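quick q for whoever's on today - can somebody do inverse folding on this one?? i tried earlier but teh output was garbage lol. tokens:
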């Protein structure tokens, strides 16, 4: 069995995850003597994307006194087929200081097929100066499935508040579930010209238009400013796997 990764495990890189679930692929993808290594890796990206589901997890901290927490927060997603195991919510895409009073934080969680999401478990390790946390709600969006679920909480995760629990199991609110056209993964290759000043550090985005006039949302190709500085250099070729 071959389990290629080709991804960062770093809070400040990629989607910020430091744990990855890998799926086995055909050995042809890992043969180094292939003349089409680039094409093989690109196809590998699509292959892995097709076997996994990317979840966008939004977490709302309540607007109450001392609602924010400095503790390490974790989440587990439970589906009809499987669960993710414990996932640390380390790198918020929106706020440098995460889980602050009244704020919404956004995280990315990747997993193999879980089936229909049934419940989540969310909690913290009670470590740090200010550990108590008031969790308003959690929203989990799965673009490849075309479903967005809301998990209302409205309770403390605090040893000195409410019932003293620092982790909770929450179920989705059926009336708040949204369904839409599922997203599709595309491999996008960008060739930057070899003329003076051709490269850019700007936020490069793509919109795809179909034959019937329907278009995708605007999608940035780089995940952060460091990638913006690294990609789209003069005379370079950059490949991206994006879901739109």
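ok took a stab at it. sequence:
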């Amino acid at each position: 069995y071959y389990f290629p990764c080709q991804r960062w495990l770093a809070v400040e890189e990629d989607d910020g995850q430091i744990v990855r679930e890998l799926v086995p692929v055909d050995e042809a993808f890992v043969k180094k003597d292939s003349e089409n290594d680039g094409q093989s890796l690109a196809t590998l990206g699509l292959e892995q994307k097709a076997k996994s589901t990317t979840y966008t997890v939004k977490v709302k901290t309540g607007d109450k006194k001392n609602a924010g927490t400095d503790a390490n927060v974790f989440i587990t997603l439970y589906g009809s087929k499987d669960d993710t195991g414990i996932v640390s919510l380390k790198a918020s895409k929106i706020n440098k200081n995460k889980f602050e009073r009244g704020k919404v934080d956004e995280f990315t969680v990747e997993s193999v097929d879980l089936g229909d999401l049934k419940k989540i478990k969310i909690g913290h390790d009670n470590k740090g100066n200010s550990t108590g946390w008031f969790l308003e709600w959690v929203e989990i969006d799965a673009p490849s499935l075309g479903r967005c679920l809301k998990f209302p909480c409205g309770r403390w995760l605090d040893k000195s508040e409410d019932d003293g629990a620092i982790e909770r199991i929450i179920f989705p609110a059926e009336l708040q579930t949204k369904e839409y056209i599922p997203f599709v993964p595309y491999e996008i290759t960008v060739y930057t010209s070899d003329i003076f000043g051709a490269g850019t550090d700007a936020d490069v985005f793509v919109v795809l238009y179909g034959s019937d006039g329907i278009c995708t949302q605007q999608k940035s190709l780089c995940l952060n400013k460091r990638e913006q500085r690294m990609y789209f250099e003069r005379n370079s070729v950059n490949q991206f796997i994006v879901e739109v």
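fwiw The chain has a mean pLDDT of 88. also The chain has two domains: 27-37+184-243, 52-179. so keep that in mind when u check it
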